[in-house]
Amino acid sequence: MFQTIAVAGLGLIGGSMVKAIRQYLPEAQVLGYELRQEVCRQALEEGTIHSANDWDALGKADLLLLALFPGQAMDFAASHSRQLRAGCTVIDLCGVKEAVCPVLEKLCLEGGFSYIGGHPMAGRELSGYGASLTNLYRGASMILVPTAATGSRTLEEASAFFTALGFGRIQVTTAEHHDRMIAFTSQLVHAVSNCYIKSPCAPDHHGYSAGSYRDLTRVARLDPAMWSELFLWNRQALLEEMDQLTFHLGQLRQAIAEGDRQRVYSLLEEGSRRKEKIDPI
């Protein structure tokens, strides 16, 4: 297991990582790297990290977790690769992989580091270190994307590490498949929720809404800086999912506009059957 772990970025994801490491791997030395000094002070006071922005200590890290926006993750790795020791394992925690993995793969091959792409499938509608939780990853899926820079034991070691932090499933896939699936399961959901809440009826929903409204609007409150970057890095896959959604909405809209009861019934039944087949009760 990794003994010295550096975490770059102490927002919701990175903050939850350092809290989980301190809880479940208390013997590990945790190095935090974060631009916001108030976050560094809080993390030090809470004991979730042992040092903040100690660049000399970075060379001792067995594992570097990049809990940053995609562009920032690539920049951090490029800027500090000379400080990492040979054999260090690098894992990014970004929500897109086709843009990030080739860049970090090349950098790590050149630097003698082991690299694997990662994406923890857990989050909240809140952001920042203050929203981070020790048990955010309890039972969640951790997606791992092996690359040409993945050492012979890296996948096994990474799987054991994330399992120790509480993840309930390790999903191994390719960068391409990851981005296609995430466009559907995460990015499209955030886009729809954010658009849905813009209805002129939204301010008056109190007293008229229940569970379905809460489910659909929970992620409408998002970090626009992060999600705009994720949307644009994964634009092709996301656009394809948006086209699928608008096509099916268009079918239903046309049937309703025409007063075609049988067609409306048929379309609703099709979706209901598909959900039952995919996610049986």
Element layout with pairings:
Blueprint: E1 4-8, H1 12-24, E2 29-33, H2 37-46, E3 51-52, E4 63-66, H3 70-80, E5 89-92, H4 101-111, E6 114-121, E7 141-146, H5 154-164, E8 169-172, H6 175-196, H7 211-217, H8 224-233, H9 235-257, H10 261-278
Parallel strand pairs: 1-2, 1-4, 2-3, 4-5, 5-6, 7-8
Antiparallel strand pairs: 6-7
Helix pairs in contact: 6-9, 9-10
Give average pLDDT, whole number: 96
Beta-strand proportion: 5-15%
Largest sheet: 8 strands, mixed
Morphology: elongated
SSE string: EHEHEEHEHEEHEHHHHH
CA distance, first residue to last residue: 38 Å
Measured on Cα atoms, how large is the radius of gyration?
21 Å
- Give the class from helix and strand content and strand pairing: alpha/beta
- Identify low-pLDDT runs: none
Count of runs of 4 or more consecutive helical residues: 10
Number of strands: 8
Helix content bin: 40-55%
Task: Write out the strand line-up for the largest beta sheet, numbering strands in chain order.
Answer: 3-2-1-4-5-6-7-8
